[in-house]
Structure to design on (147 residues):
C-alpha cells in the first residue's frame, strides 16, 4: 500500500457508474502536507447516497474544518477522476460530469452587485446546471448579508 512522506495511507479509488459516494478516513492533501511534524490530520468519512443521504448540512464553530472538508471532497473527487491515488483509506466515487463549488466571498461593485447578489447568482447558475451526476459543494451561502 503506497504511503505519503508523512506515513499516511493513500489508496486507489474505485470509480463506478452508480451515484453513491463512500470515502473512508479522507484527509485534505494540502493541509496534511503542511502540518507540523508529529501532528496528525483527523480523517473524515463522507457518505452520500440519493436513496438515503443525498444532502449534508454541516455546522460547527469557526475553524472546526467545515470548509476544509468541502474542499477535500472536491479534491479527492477530482484526483480520482484524473486517475490518481487519493488520501483516504478507501474511496468509492461515482463518475461525475461536473463539480460545482461556491466557496469564498467576492463582489462586483462596478457591475452593481454586492457579495450577497454575487453568491445568489452563482448559486442559481449551479442549480440551473446540475445533473444527477454532478457534485455540488456550497459553503456559507447567504453570508454576504446581515440578519
Amino acid at each position: 500500500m503506497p504511503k505519503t512522506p508523512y506515513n499516511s495511507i493513500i489508496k486507489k479509488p474505485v470509480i463506478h457508474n452508480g451515484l453513491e459516494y463512500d470515502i473512508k478516513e479522507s484527509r485534505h492533501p494540502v493541509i496534511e502536507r503542511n502540518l507540523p511534524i508529529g501532528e496528525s490530520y483527523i480523517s473524515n468519512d463522507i457518505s452520500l447516497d440519493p436513496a438515503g443521504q443525498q444532502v449534508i448540512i454541516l455546522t460547527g464553530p469557526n475553524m472546526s474544518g467545515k470548509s476544509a472538508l468541502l474542499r477535500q471532497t472536491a479534491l479527492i473527487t477530482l484526483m480520482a477522476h484524473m486517475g490518481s491515488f487519493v488520501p483516504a483509506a478507501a474511496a468509492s466515487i461515482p463518475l461525475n460530469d461536473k463539480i460545482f463549488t461556491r466557496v469564498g466571498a467576492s463582489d462586483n461593485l462596478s457591475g452593481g452587485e454586492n457579495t450577497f447578489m454575487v453568491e445568489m447568482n452563482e448559486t442559481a447558475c449551479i442549480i440551473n446546471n446540475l445533473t444527477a451526476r454532478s457534485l455540488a459543494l456550497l459553503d456559507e451561502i447567504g453570508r454576504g448579508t446581515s440578519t
